[in-house]
Input
Amino acid sequence: MIRTLIVDDEQLARRGLELRLQKYADISVCGESRNGREALEHIRTQAPDLIFLDIQMPGMDGFEVLQRMSGSDMPAVVFVTAFNEFALQAFEANALDYLLKPIDDSRLAEALERARQLLESRAALEHRNKLLNLVCELKGERLSLEDAFDQGASGSRKFPERLAIRDGGKTRCLNMTAIDWVDAAGDYMCIHADGETYVMRGTMKRLEELLDPELFVRVHRSAIVNRERVTSMRSHRNGEYFLQLGTEKELKLSRKYKANLERLAERI
Output
């Protein structure tokens, strides 16, 4: 079964899509979200394989939801939108698929078939890379890792104190201590800090070299965490651990990085 989440601020739109999906035996609607914040919570608790994500929502829109999703748990995304032709071209290039409102049954069938092929081929990483690339295009955050640290470095310190983040035509300096965690997908990284997510091109290996090991710990091949943010840990029967960050975020510590548990436990 393909666990599916519907995200739309319009109740009739959610109900209409749910009814259309009922005729597909391999689709299981695991939840409905009325806004972006609900969507993030349902993604965390329901772990859907597929999301139908409305772009135009009040408050947190679909693009911001996309930004705030962790790279390690990002599902397949089909946009549902009434955007103009230029935006649709961007979706075609980067998204799994898009649907125009009102949704056409034949286009819905096409989108579901693409989702099946994606999940069957285990191409989620490639899909995640394309989605992060879309965020870069829309938000203008194309600063490379090296440039960011070169601008943010302070004096001759080995580990920079700040990270330069470019958003459109503006550049802001982010204190390294504000970073909660970082996850990666291919050549892109998501920097999560102060409730925001910034997308940057670079590799985890290089980033790890530039982060102070007294504060940051590698917990997965695609994740680094700020030790100060870890509030609890729980073991899993396969030898992995789950790290709780505050009340909302949970990260996995893989067996490969189990040796770092002691460093994390010192701060709990």
